[in-house]
Amino acid sequence: MPPASPADARRTAVDVAALLERGRTLATPVLREAAGRLAPPMDTVAAYHFGWIDAHGNPTEGDGGKAVRPALAVLSAEVAGADPKTGVPGAVAVELVHNFSLLHDDLMDGDEQRRHRDTVWKVHGPAQAILVGDALFALAYEVLLESGTAGAGRAARRLTAATRALIDGQAQDISYEHRDRVSVEECLEMEGNKTGALLACASSVGAVLGGAGEKDADTLERYGYHLGLAFQAVDDLLGIWGDPVATGKQTWSDLRQRKKSLPVVAALAAGGSASERLGELLAADAKSTDFANFSEEEFAARAALIEEAGGREWTAAEARRQHTIAIEALGDVDMPEQVREKFTALADFVVVRKR
Amino acid sequence: MPPASPADARRTAVDVAALLERGRTLATPVLREAAGRLAPPMDTVAAYHFGWIDAHGNPTEGDGGKAVRPALAVLSAEVAGADPKTGVPGAVAVELVHNFSLLHDDLMDGDEQRRHRDTVWKVHGPAQAILVGDALFALAYEVLLESGTAGAGRAARRLTAATRALIDGQAQDISYEHRDRVSVEECLEMEGNKTGALLACASSVGAVLGGAGEKDADTLERYGYHLGLAFQAVDDLLGIWGDPVATGKQTWSDLRQRKKSLPVVAALAAGGSASERLGELLAADAKSTDFANFSEEEFAARAALIEEAGGREWTAAEARRQHTIAIEALGDVDMPEQVREKFTALADFVVVRKR
């Protein structure tokens, strides 16, 4: 985690929890109404995916996730001097695209669990995972375009660009699985596509709907893109060294999945004896038929080598570096000071979070 | 097939082959350029799907299909007094959405062949079929929205509505597979969603891009929707009684797939002794473990019962009925007489085609 920094001092000024709650409160009813437009049984499958019902159809208290994207979308409307509500169709469209990609990625990757629950394809079958993913993707455009404004058309173009990047990132992720080595640059490009592009869209969509110019929208996207890279670097750290109680994931989660995440690729690229030993171990692991039975100690040994080779510190520094670029981008957009402080606080939250 | 009608006389006035060729010639280069924007290996998978290359990557002469949708899209631009080229982004977007749905439907349905070739999921795997389908869907919006005009935003809304209907239709198709009986009304609703909605969009998208009003666009959609139902009724006839040489499908193709197409559901709904015998046979077939080994004679016997129960004649009459509604809708839109004649000729072509 980054050491004490100006970010820690700033955190007292803005109530991040309230910012996240505002995005969630504004977006969730519209998201639920939109998902409710789907014909049966797709409405039920979507409600299960979003955590609103369990596999038997009974209502549940979903945790709703961190809700960083909706918070950014409604906040960005304020850049254009518009009411935060102006950003809601954008917030919902971005959430719909994000969840369409989760439904399809979980099936493509064969992932059986997400947020402690069986994934949609496990519960409702592959066809429903494909179909409801498609439906959420189409709903994103429906929600975004139904206002019929010029801003909606511009926002839809940016959403399309983000979605194309998201799909490119998934294509890269799939191709990297079949390779022994992935460079740090390739990993960053993939993470920029999979995480950065949609956070970029979330950070500009409210402003675009509120009538902001293209240059300001581009700059807000730059903020969001680098925030996304910082977010993913922290995610990659938590994926190895996160507290299972806080993250809700298994210990050494990303190592168990043999994920070529930033700490791993950075450690492999670092050179030196720990890096070389790690490379030999992971190459052997890739061929091992006993991998599923590996003990805690075996994963801990790999994590220690990654740390010894410098992969942990490099990734933490990368999170801080991307965080700094994101904050600096904010300086290129004219906005009320208290709006700027909120964007900064959300960026600070992303890099210090424990889950 | 429908008997001799005024349609036969009209067919001499307009060169339908030239109309179809115009749509194909205008749309194909833009479609190829758009698919070429995809990152590897998605560009290759898309090119395989479109029939531009074979499974080894060698260029092939694809037959390009009937190309009714692109022909309608560029023709509809002329309703607004615009150059046919104005409709091209719409034609390409509609083709991209159509092909996204084919990629996903073939995987969901487990279909291994399309147009005499292995389907994408058979050649490139399920993950690529999902991913490239998603990419084509996103590309549709990219191509449609990149002009940035108000018409493009309106066209995107209509494309979204059509896509939502397409997905609803696929959901119905999947659910009907698990049921013994489907009513004629349910079958028509499903076919309207799966085929009518996108032909409706194709028939209006050029006009919308050319600046036509919403009322005219709605009326053109009505033409296209009913044309789609006529198209599908003819497809359902060809799926049972079509000449394999002309259709490129197996004999009794839809019966082999146990498709609950219009002739079948109409025959089952008709009542009488042939209808009842058909119902008993199909119920037994559904449980048969020997279905894959059925002889030509066994399928011919089922086709004969469908015909005896009136399913063939009912479907042919339905094609004529939908064709008439489509033509009548044209009367509610103000357009040059020669444009109206072309729309009429395309509708005539759809109901008299042999493949």
Automatic annotation (TrEMBL), chains A, B:
The keyword Metal-binding applies. Keywords: Magnesium, Metal-binding, Transferase. GO terms for molecular function: metal ion binding; prenyltransferase activity. Signal peptide: none annotated. PROSITE patterns: POLYPRENYL_SYNTHASE_1 (PS00723). It comes from the Bacteria. Pfam families: polyprenyl_synt (PF00348). One of its GO terms (biological process) is isoprenoid biosynthetic process. Belongs to the FPP/GGPP synthase family. This is Polyprenyl synthetase family protein. It comes from Streptomyces roseirectus. The lineage of its organism: Bacteria, Bacillati, Actinomycetota, Actinomycetes, Kitasatosporales.
